[in-house]
Each structure stands twice: as structure tokens, then as C-alpha cells.
Amino acid sequence: MYKRKLIGFLITGILTSVILTCLENGLGTIQTFGLSLLFSSLLILCLGVPSSLLSDFFTRICYGKLRMTMALFIHLGFGLLFGYIIFTEHLILITVVAAFIFWLTDEIVRFKWKHKIENMVPIHYEM
């Protein structure tokens, strides 16, 4: 589970930095990307990863689409809450988008790992 969260953190940090760089018109592209990568990665690590762990904890007894939907709403709720508490109105959308990217990455990695493990189960043939 922690590997999945680390992968989600890295991908979300990079994609959020790209989005912030595209929205920002100052400094220069490389400097803006570096600053947004540092800033967004720090916030995602401190706020996004724990909220994703809480989402996994709250949805551990659910399966299928119900678990995915509940996890999405928990991720978006925490993103909206953190955006409302920490940022101004125009940056709330960025936190919600980052929360969605983190949820999507986590679900894709969860799906890929689940099917990889299922395909690795040895098949015993009778002779």
C-alpha cells in the first residue's frame, strides 16, 4: 500500500506542477516549474498522502464501484477542505484537481497491481 501511495504522490506532484506552470505567467518556465514542484509536492506529501491513507481506511470494507466512489468523494472532500483552509478561492480548484489526480493514480495502480498478482498465480496441471 505504501508503494502505491508513493507512486501516486510522485505522479500527482509532477502533474500538479505542470498544471500550475501552465497557469502561471511569471518568473520563467523552468523556475516556475521548480517552485511549483517543490510547493505542490510538499503539500501533497503532508496533506494528500495522509488523506489518501484515511480514505483507504474508511473504504476497506467496501468493494467495487462503491469503494471507488466513496474513495473519490473522500479525496475530493479533503482536497476541497484543504483548499478552503489554506488557499484563496482561485487555488481551491487546483487542490481539488490534485486530489482527483491522486485518486485516479491510486486507482490505476491498484487495478494494475491486482491484475498483475492474479496473473502470477501458478496454474497446476494434472497429469
What attributes does this structure have?
127 residues, mainly alpha, 4 helices, 83% helix
Mean pLDDT: 80
Q: How much strand content do the residues show?
A: under 5%
Derived structural class: mainly alpha
Instruction: Please bin the fraction of helical residues.
Output: over 70%
Q: How many H/I helical runs?
A: 4
Shape: globular
N-to-C CA distance: 39 Å
- Rg, alpha carbons: 17 Å
Number of domains: 1
Secondary-structure element string: HHHH
Query: Would you report the number of β strands?
Result: 0
Major sheet characteristics: none
Low-confidence stretches: none
Detailed description of the structure:
Keywords: Membrane, Transmembrane, Transmembrane helix. The chain crosses the membrane at residues 7-27, 33-54, 66-85, 91-109. It comes from Aquisalibacillus elongatus. This is DUF3021 family protein. The chain contains four helices and no strands. The longest helix is centred in the last third of the chain and has 31 residues, at 89-119. With 127 residues, it is mainly α. It has one domain. 23% of the residues are buried. Helix 1 (2-23) runs antiparallel to helix 4 (89-119). The model has no long low-confidence stretch (mean pLDDT 80).
Summarize the structure.
With 127 residues, the chain is mostly helical. The protein contains four helices and no strands.
Question: What does the secondary structure layout of this molecule look like, with pairings?
Answer:
Layout: H1 2-23, H2 29-58, H3 64-86, H4 89-119
